[in-house]
Amino acid sequence: MVGGAGNDILSITATSTDVDFTNITNVEVLGIAGNAIAATLDTKAAAAGLNRVQYGAVGTVETINVNAGFTNDLTVVMA
Q: How far apart, in Å, are the Cα atoms of 21 and each of 57, 60, 76?
């Protein structure tokens, strides 16, 4: 999957690991929609171009793990 110009959003509704970002490029925003979702960002997420995580609704429990291989600047936006 290749995102286009501007800020592209990849939304997840289930737990995601770094391998899920294989073959994804030019996507800047990871949208987390749902409850009890965890995302792990590492080298593949960095290569995908992620630089922002947008959490879902207030009152949900979401987890983001940023490993050493994720070298991009990262902005985390809480709902």
A: 23, 23, 18
Structure tokens at 34: 């749902």
Cα distances from 44 to residues 6, 18, 57, 72, in angstroms, run 20, 6, 26, 11
**Average pLDDT of adjacent 10-residue blocks, the chain of 79 residues:** 87 92 95 85 97 84 93 92
Four-CA torsion 55, 59, 60, 63, nearest 10 degrees? 60
Query: Tokens 């997420």 — which residue?
Result: 45
What is the number of other CB atoms lying within 10 angstroms of the CB of residue 23? 10
